[in-house]
Design a protein that fits this description.
Helices cover 24% and strands 25% of the residues. With 275 residues, the chain is α+β, with helices and mostly antiparallel strands. It has a single domain, classed as Jelly Rolls, CATH 2.60.120.620. It binds 2-oxoglutaric acid.
Length: 275
């Protein structure tokens, strides 16, 4: 797909998200799933907890995925032509587990200012209402940041179990994606997702987020890579770019990046969660 159409951009501006956008073939999505599952098999727990972040620093397949032309073309329509990758996260909900994501706004704790950034959620498996796809509260991005209760529920996939209460579910819209499609969402849209009731895993690979080069990190340090255009501001430290799978130097880089990310996510919190 070329850049987003005017209609898609209007939809994003009005609702705070846009989907579906075709970015990978089913075969490419399956290769990404296989990469995850081969890491899980050889190194159990490596992608768990904090380890679910920055997988693009240790795997060339994920690194290449972040540079997918269709993704970047769509992202460019929203944040402009100078694009940095400032993080990736795997949101995996296994069958028969109770994982969910409470309603929240990404911008609340992430420290990226100004909000010239967008989150790309790529479906590695199909994502639908049965297996706990995301739900967006359309138009909620136009309001200020809301109060979040910090609940630290064991099954919540968010760091602090941060929760906006009393979201009208009937007003939210499901983001239904086929494997290989992506959605883009705004930093302040209220969104969340329910549990996976299917017999298979639901896997989302999330670039969290693509940021414009004018976006600074005001709470700590994030490790970036240039995806397109120029980095005129040079606010951030650059991460390794993996040339081979699980190189020790890249793993060290990922671990440092994760330590710094954890400081951002738990800034001001008395308690540390499992992610
Ligand atoms: O994967 C999910 O269900 C939620 C992910 C999410 O909240 C996000 O990508 O911002």
């Amino acid at each position: 797909m070329p850049k987003l159409s005017d209609q898609q951009i209007n939809f994003y501006n009005e609702k705070g998200y846009i989907s579906p956008i075709d970015v990978f073939s089913t075969k490419e999505a399956k290769e990404i799933r296989d990469e995850i599952e081969s890491i899980e098999k050889k190194w159990p727990n490596f992608l768990e907890g904090l380890g679910r972040n920055y997988v693009h620093i240790i795997s060339p397949i994920f690194n290449k995925a972040c540079l997918n032309k269709r993704m970047l073309d769509a992202v460019e329509s929203i944040i402009g032509k100078n694009i940095l990758i400032c993080g990736t996260t795997l949101f995996i909900k296994n069958a028969n587990e109770k994982g969910f994501v409470s309603f929240h706004q990404d911008a609340k704790y992430i420290g990226l200012e100004p909000h010239n950034w967008v989150t790309a959620w790529v479906a590695i498996t199909d994502a639908n209402e049965n297996n706990g796809c995301m739900r967006m509260w359309p138009g909620s991005h136009k309001n200020n940041l809301k109060h979040h209760n910090q609940k630290f529920d064991a099954n919540n996939l968010l760091t602090r179990g941060q929760t906006i209460e009393n979201v009208p579910i009937e007003e939210t819209e499901p983001v239904i994606l086929k494997a290989g499609q992506m959605s883009l969402h705004h930093p302040t849209i209220v969104h969340g997702s329910g549990i996976n009731k299917s017999n298979d895993r639901r896997i989302g690979f999330v670039v969290q987020s693509y940021i414009g080069d004018n976006v600074n990190q005001v709470l700590g340090k994030m490790f970036v890579q240039l995806a397109r255009g120029k980095d005129r501001y040079k606010y951030h430290q650059y991460s390794n770019i993996p040339e081979e799978f699980m190189n020790i130097k890249d793993i060290e880089c990922r671990d440092i990046a994760n330590e710094e990310l954890s400081k951002i996510f738990y800034n001001g919190s008395k308690k540390i969660g499992k992610y």
